[in-house]
Specification:
Blueprint (H helix, E strand, L loop, with lengths): L4 E6 L13 H19 L4 H4 L3 E2 L2 E8 L8 E11 L3 E10 L2 E11 L1 E2 L9 H8 L7
Antiparallel strand pairs: 1-4, 2-7, 3-6, 4-5, 5-6
């Protein structure tokens, strides 16, 4: 059975444009914050430790923005793992507030070494990622 990771995010003044709605690049910062919290809190693999021997860059991202978010909104970003490859992982994130979807995104991250070359996930991290893998049956 798959699990999801929930990341609460209040829309702050710094996220908004002069009209008081989230400026879309700020959503990408929120997505990255969610991924970083997922690795730290759910996988016990904080980026500050992972990045001593490599990195986990995002190599692909596709996002659909469904409705605007406003200053003060309370978002819940739900993250699920959709695929675990030898060196990569695919994620899906959905942000909602008040029962209304704000964005949906899919992304692919790759585990790389210090030279920037793809490297297989360490066994313990692969196992942890698999715990969040959706049921494809």
């Amino acid at each position: 059975m798959s699990r999801t990771f929930l990341f609460p995010q209040k829309v702050l003044f710094k996220h908004c444009d002069p009209a008081g709605i989230v400026f879309y690049p700020r959503y990408f910062e929120m997505m990255n914050d969610c991924v970083e919290a997922f690795f730290s809190d759910a996988l016990n693999a904080p980026f500050e430790n992972l990045h001593k021997t490599g990195a986990t860059p995002t190599v692909a991202i596709n996002t659909v923005f469904q409705s605007p978010s406003h200053h003060g909104d309370q978002l819940i970003v739900t993250l699920a793992v959709t695929r675990v490859g030898d060196t990569s992982v695919s994620l899906q994130m959905v942000a909602e507030s008040g029962g209304q979807s704000r964005f949906e995104t899919t992304s692919t991250l790759v585990n790389v070494n210090l030279q920037g070359r793809p490297e297989p996930w360490p066994d313990d991290l692969r196992s942890a990622l698999t715990q969040f893998l959706g049921d494809n049956t």
